[in-house]
Amino acid sequence: MELSQSVALVTGANRGLGRHFAEQLLAHGAKVYATARNPRRVTVPGAQVLQLDITDSASVAAAAAAAPDVTLLINNAGILSQQNLVTGDLDKIRLEMDTHYFGTLNAVRAFAPVLAKNGGGAILNVLSALSWMSYDGVNTYAAAKAAEWSLTNGIRLELAGQGTLVTGLHLGAADTDMMADWEGDKVNPADVVRAALAGLEAGKLEVLADDWSAYVKASLARDPGEFYVQTFSAS
Ligand SMILES: NC(=O)c1ccc[n+]([C@@H]2O[C@H](COP(=O)([O-])OP(=O)(O)OC[C@H]3O[C@@H](n4cnc5c(N)ncnc54)[C@H](OP(=O)(O)O)[C@@H]3O)[C@@H](O)[C@H]2O)c1
Question: Which of 17, 179, 192, 233 has an alpha carbon 20 to 30 Å from 170's alpha carbon atom?
Fold first, then answer.
């Protein structure tokens, strides 16, 4: 993926990681569609601004029609509802799945033909270390991110024939609004986006943006009892 030649569309580009994606892609020389549920909140000089709510099929279709030259889709939009599975609010739990899984799927289905027409291009899905682990208090987010990870692997197979690179980005905690209440260590969101874009340029299928993501991924080869007991009794 040659970023300087790319036409990127970023979901949730009004703040957080999405805004960094839009700004850094512009700095690489890309044309950028910076999209948001409320486009008036997008303040990225040089970007083309579009309305896009990934949970609204009509909004996704309109964005795909308005951006027919896209070669790089950044599925960044997300929410964190801080719910658990057994006692959490079911409407919030559904919205998390509607956003991370069905919303990302909406965007993929709308833009796959656009990418095919423009030579294949690439899709980057912003996943999480929580795609691979659960954490008491945010278990419904982890389930939605696990579903999005599986989606990422599935569409990679389905879109290989049209030459679309599909990359998954995993990170622990980055310093954005989403993690404002988290008191542990947080990485700089600009560094996460730099790692993601370097991975795309290198044609990587997966980018681990921080040590925590690499640690959690490595833990999957171990007995779950070891990971959950050792990691969380030590913290
Ligand atoms: N920050 C972290 O530590 C962390 C860790 C792992 C993964 N992630 C993932 O990174 C991505 C970006 O998160 P962030 O940290 O930048 O969060 P953030 O600062 O809370 O920003 C979230 C963005 O997603 C947008 N969004 C939410 N629902 C949407 C929808 N239905 N349609 C379109 N846009 C929507 C928000 O728009 P509004 O302004 O309209 O709400 C906002 O622009 C998410 O997928 C998140 O799960 C973040």
Answer: 233
**Ligand 1 pocket: which of 11, 21, 24, 37 to mutate (most atoms <8 Å of CB)?**
37
Query: Nearest CA to 116 among 78, 68, 74?
Result: 68
Q: Phi and psi of 194, rounded to 5°?
A: -60, -45
- At 226 the pLDDT is 87
User: What value does the mean pLDDT of the chain take?
Assistant: 97
Question: Domain ranges in the chain?
Answer: 3-234
Residue nearest atom 26 of ligand 1, based on CA coordinates: 77
Cα of 136 from ligand 1 centre, angstroms: 20
Residue 142 is predicted with a pLDDT of 98
**What is the rounded distance in angstroms from the CA atom of residue 141 to the CA atom of residue 95?**
10
SS3 of residue 136 by DSSP = coil
Q: Which atom of ligand 1 is nearest to the CA of 15?
A: 43
Which atom number of ligand 1 is nearest to the Cα of residue 75? 45
Model confidence over 76-92: pLDDT tens digits? 999 999 999 999 999 99
CATH number of 3-234: 3.40.50.720
